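Run log // design_07
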């Protein structure tokens, strides 16, 4: 994932936090960062050492049990949890976001499209789609369940 794609996803997570809580996450002393695959587990280890909460949100990449449960089983603690869509058909953030917001995504991304479906467009143009959703429909988006769960866990 390129830098702009990560920035777009981070902006969407920030909007989801605001939509669910009514304040920006920065004011709640929560930090949203992008964690690369090679350092992902290190952040979970740091959570335990520093006694802070880390909600790691990730794609299930088509195998929730293997990629999100088994892969982190020894690192999930009272301070660190993995949040991902448990439905293997919703393997990426964009696929799940489309499934939860089909009418909105079709309205924005279907007109004039000849070869790509709205979901295919979102997958091929992640940053553009994310910023368009935020710019035009931010207040109408349904927050994916696993992201809402991560926000609630952090606030508990």
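design_07 sequence
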């Amino acid at each position: 994932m390129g830098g702009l794609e990560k920035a777009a996803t981070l902006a969407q997570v920030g909007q989801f936090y605001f939509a669910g809580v009514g304040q920006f996450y920065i004011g709640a002393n929560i930090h949203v960062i992008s964690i690369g695959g090679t350092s992902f587990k290190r952040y979970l280890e740091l959570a335990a050492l520093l006694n802070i909460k880390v909600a790691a949100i990730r794609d299930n990449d088509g195998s929730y049990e293997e990629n999100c449960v088994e892969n982190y089983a020894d690192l999930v603690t009272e301070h660190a949890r993995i949040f991902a869509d448990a439905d293997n058909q919703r393997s990426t953030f964009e696929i799940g976001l489309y499934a939860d917001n089909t009418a909105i995504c079709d309205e924005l991304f279907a007109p004039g499209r000849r070869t790509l479906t709205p979901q295919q467009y979102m997958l091929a143009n992640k940053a553009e789609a994310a910023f368009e959703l935020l710019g035009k429909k931010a207040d109408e988006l349904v927050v994916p369940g696993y992201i809402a769960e991560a926000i609630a866990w952090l606030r508990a």
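The radius of gyration is 16 Å.
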